[in-house]
Design a protein that fits this description.
The complex is a heterodimer of chains A (about 250) and B (about 325).
Chain A (H helix, E strand, L loop, with lengths): L1 H15 L2 H23 L4 H35 L1 H6 L5 H33 L6 H26 L4 H24 L3 H13 L9 H5 L6 H28 L5
Helix pairs in contact in A: 1-5, 2-3, 2-5, 3-5, 3-6, 3-7, 5-6, 5-10, 6-7, 6-10, 7-8
Chain B lengths: L7 E15 L2 E14 L3 E5 L6 H9 L6 E6 L2 E2 L9 E4 L11 H11 L4 H14 L15 H12 L6 E5 L7 H17 L4 E6 L2 H7 L2 E6 L2 E7 H6 L4 E8 L12 E6 H15 L1 E8 L1 H9 L19
Parallel strand pairs in B: 3-8, 3-9, 6-7, 7-8
Antiparallel strand pairs in B: 1-2, 1-4, 4-5, 9-10, 11-12, 11-13
Helix pairs in contact in B: 2-3
Classes of the chains: A mainly alpha (about 250), B alpha/beta (about 325).
Chain lengths: ~250, ~325
């Protein structure tokens, strides 16, 4: 465990020294500011729509963090040869991936918390009413969605080049967000079989998306949140096992 | 593990590595390599670029999977991660996360080796002194020169007081002074860790000659020979070229006008030097015919050593 936490610690430092991190953080802050402006343009339910934009901005930023930081972290290790120094020690490749994952998700949790705080301040300043419990649950599920996406990104990043891995991860996000709806609304039997099959392979990311509920101040029962957390943990484990199996077989040339 | 492995730190059994070059084509990187590296020796892995030295080292570390054969390190089969707890590794071009200081990096690598607390701090201080980097230990690695980075990499390879040190081209890319520093450092490591086996690759005969007790010569992925360095140097014989200036003619000959003498063997050289002293002949330079040996090493069919199997050097402490 000490090995994993050491790698996670260095990963956190690495991300905090990363230019892309600050670009994404800037983008996230801009998205929140833009949400405020867009919310002001609407006629009805101004505060709900503004809040919805805020949450959408945080979700999008978190997704971009998962994909770009994940790919950048792993590809830098492999391309710059830093990994040779780590793997020449008695460290398994799985421990290496888990350490990186823990470091990255810690930073993602920090970013979501800071953006949540910024959103809270902006809402207070603009007299937008928020239900803290609903917002907390929404942000928690965003974090879980980000963690699932990060594990998916790691799976692609250890197998593919940076660009293809990013494209594949974005596709996976799209499929994960819409396959449940495709199963529900598709009347054609053969097509529905296809979507059902896809839905069983791709993580169902709709489960983590409760921004509509959050913006209306609605929330889930805690046992439902626990079930979603369990689902996220299973998804992360499955993608991590797949990623580590592929990574263990991979030749490292650095 | 069998009993014959007790005196062997690296055992490579009929290992091959084939690399895919795309479109169904492949290239042999290492071809049926078998090698036993005895404990406590400094062994050089010598060969021209592309001969399979780095591939062999990366297979020993478990970075590359052999296509065939097996590798054992200190009695454990690669890729078992326990093998790496015996190894200190210096890559050809060591690269570190630039946002950390030298000390922070050594602490990180120490933690990966399950070292911590006072023991780790003391070890780091000792190693920073050994590689003469204590003064720069709080600076970020970003500002380190190539030589400093190399010395930091050597320090990290020694954190766990390894039983087996693997250095991949340790003098690569360094200036003559830097190379000399690293050579001296390797000598010092060998004197401080006399039980440790040092296995390093190079394509520079001079480095290998000065540091190694035995040498494995690779060519096109195959082991050409594995013998003691003395045996290897005997191939060409000790030939010397001596440039002299006769002091009696010094006033009449223009400066730089020298006579060259070719001598075979050390005895002939010593006898000549004695005569020169008696006759008042000035010795301007003495050089050995090393180039021919290097050519012989790297050209197919010019090296007349026996088959590798007959050339396993005896373990020398």
């Amino acid at each position: 465990m000490k090995t994993i936490f050491s790698i996670a610690g260095v990963t956190i430092k690495e991300l905090l020294h990363e230019r892309v991190f600050y670009i994404l953080a800037g983008f996230a802050s801009l998205a929140l500011a833009l949400s405020l402006l867009l919310g002001q343009l609407t006629y009805a339910e101004k505060s709900k729509i503004t809040l919805d934009f805020f949450l959408a901005g945080i979700q999008l930023s978190n997704l971009l963090f998962s994909i770009f930081m994940g790919i950048s972290l792993l590809h830098r290790e492999l391309n710059l040869g830093w990994i040779a120094m780590v793997l020449s020690k008695p460290v398994s490749r799985l421990s290496f991936l888990v350490g990186k994952f823990l470091g990255q998700t810690t930073i993602q949790a920090l970013v979501i918390s800071l953006l949540g705080l910024l959103m809270f301040v902006l809402c207070k300043h603009n007299e937008i009413e928020i239900i803290p419990k609903a917002i907390f649950q929404t942000l928690l599920l965003f974090f879980l969605e980000g963690a699932v996406m990060t594990s998916v990104v790691y799976f692609f990043a250890v197998n593919l080049g940076a660009l293809i891995a990013a494209a594949a991860s974005l596709c996976m996000f799209g499929l994960g967000s819409f396959t449940e709806a495709a199963v529900k609304f598709n009347s054609d039997d053969s097509q529905q079989t296809f979507w059902k099959l896809l839905n069983s392979v791709v993580p169902n990311l709709r489960l983590f998306n409760m921004k509509a509920l959050g913006s209306y101040g609605l929330f889930l029962e805690w046992n439902q949140v626990a079930l979603v957390t369990l689902y996220a943990s299973v998804c992360i484990c499955v993608y991590f096992i797949l990623a580590s199996l592929c990574f263990a077989r991979r030749d490292i040339y650095t | 593990m069998n009993s014959s492995m007790n005196n062997v730190d690296i055992l490579i059994k009929n290992v091959s590595k084939r690399f895919s070059t795309g479109w169904g084509k492949s290239k042999m990187g290492v071809d049926g390599l078998s090698l036993e590296v005895p404990k406590g020796q400094v062994v050089g892995l010598l060969g021209p670029n592309g001969s399979g030295k780095s591939t062999t080292i990366k297979m020993i570390l478990g970075f590359l999977k052999p296509t065939a054969g097996e590798i054992w390190v200190c009695g454990h089969q690669v890729p078992d991660k326990i093998t790496r707890s015996f190894i200190g590794y210096l890559p050809e071009n060591p690269r570190f996360p630039k946002f950390l200081s030298g000390r922070a990096l050594l602490t990180f690598y120490g933690n990966l080796l399950s070292l911590s607390g006072k023991a780790l701090t003391n070890r780091i201080d000792f190693l920073l002194d050994l590689v003469d980097l204590r003064w720069a230990s709080e600076e970020k690695v970003q500002g380190y020169s190539k030589g400093m980075t190399q010395r930091l990499a050597i320090a990290q390879s020694l954190l766990n007081e390894p039983r087996l040190l693997i250095f991949d081209e340790p003098m690569s890319g360094l200036d003559p002074l830097g190379r000399k520093d690293i050579r001296n450092l390797i000598r010092r490591i060998h004197s401080e860790l006399p039980e440790a086996t040092i296995f390093f690759s190079s394509h520079i005969l001079e480095d290998v000659e000065q540091l190694c007790s035995s040498v494995a010569l690779l060519r096109k992925g195959k082991l050409k020979t594995f013998c003691s360095i003395d045996e290897l140097l005997k191939v060409e014989g000790n030939r010397f070229e001596v440039s002299i200036r006769d002091s009696q003619q010094a006033d009449t000959l223009p400066p730089g006008n020298l006579t060259t003498k070719n001598l075979n063997g050390t005895e002939e050289l010593i006898s000549f030097l004695n005569q020169a002293q008696q006759k008042g002949i000035s010795i301007v330079s003495i050089s050995s015919h090393r180039n021919k040996l290097e050519e012989a090493l790297f050209k197919e069919g010019e090296l007349n050593l026996n088959h590798p199997e007959n050339n396993q050097p005896e373990a020398r402490q």
